[in-house]
Amino acid sequence: MLKIKVLPANCGDCFIISFDDGGIIKNILIDGGVGITYKKYLKHEIENIKKENQNIDLLIITHSHEDHINGIIKFIEDNENNDCIKKIWFNSGIHFKREKIMMLTQNSDLDISIKQIKYLEDKLVNMKFMGENIWNKEVIQQGFIENFNNGKITVLSPNKYGLKKLEDFTQETDDLMITGKNYDYSTKLVDFDLNNFEEDCSIENSTSISILFEYSDKKLLFLADSTPSIIIEGLVKTNAL
After folding, report:
1. Of the candidates 12, 40, 45, 8, which has an alpha carbon nearest to the alpha carbon of residue 28?
2. Do 135 and 124 meet the contact criterion of CB atoms below 8 Å apart?
């Protein structure tokens, strides 16, 4: 049994992967979308998971953009005494002892608040499940593998080069600077000029945690906001093609 739920997250992500793992149903939550995603959709899904005596066996927070973390923040605020999240993957600036960081956003309406990210870090550091810390602050990077009885996750990004850029960037930046750029969310696919395609080189997007999830004869990609070149590199290096 494999089920994938895609919850409304505006321009962000919120996925729930549910699968039979040796007779036990396991659930992987990837991002939480914007705040309203949790209030209108994700909260109900979490309540149903707990009613079935199941857990969020793995929460993957791909990167710290508002349309990916706000729903997670609302979720955690609603579950201060965590009773369902067993493990968290999140490559936060805390890995690099970041005090302040410049974040570039694609939409001025999605500007990231450094206080918001620090708030999430503080919450995650203190969260436990059955007395054990659920976020060990391990750096999740290309080639990392998580095996289940009936499934497997292979991490495709970020790569070491991207993580080094993020480390250098967070250590060298003294002030928080938030900038907005023009966005094209309302543009139809047929209206894009794909001949003039350019990769998004922003550090926070290119260091998104993206994964290949394998179950039975199925292979599913969850790419967050990572860049095509890094995804292809990850697929080749992990022999997933």
Report:
1. 45
2. yes
Alpha-carbon distance of 141 to 137, in angstroms, equals 12
CA 68 to each of CA 12, 65, 203: distance values in angstroms, whole numbers, following the listed order: 5, 6, 16
Q: What is the pTM of this model?
A: 0.86
- CA torsion angle for 110, 115, 120, 123 (degrees, to 10)? -160
Q: What is the mean pLDDT of residues 87-116?
A: 58
Report residue 55 as tokens: 């857990």
Element (H, E) at 158: none
Q: At what angle do helices 114-126 and 66-78 cross, to 10 degrees?
A: 40
- pLDDT at residue 83 is higher than 70: yes
Rounded to whole angstroms, how far apart are CA atoms 233 and 125? Answer: 32
pLDDT tens, 192-232? 777 887 787 777 788 899 999 999 999 999 999 999 999 99
Are the C-beta atoms of residues 66 and 79 closer than 8 Å to each other? Answer: no
What is the spatial distance between Cα 234 and Cα 228, in angstroms, rounded to a whole number? 10
The secondary structure element, H or E, covering residue 22 is none
Q: How many C-beta neighbours within 10 Å does residue 221 have?
A: 12
Give the integer Cα–Cα distance in Å for 223 and 226.
6
Q: How far is the C-alpha of 178 from the C-alpha of 102, rounded, in Å?
A: 6
Report the phi/psi class of residue 200: left, alpha or beta, with left for phi > 0 and alpha for psi in -120 to 50. Answer: beta
- ∠221-91-20 over CA atoms, to 5°? 40
Spatial distance between the Cα atoms of 232 and 229, rounded to a whole number of angstroms: 5
Strand partners, 147: 152
User: In this structure, which amino acid lies at residue 53?
Assistant: N
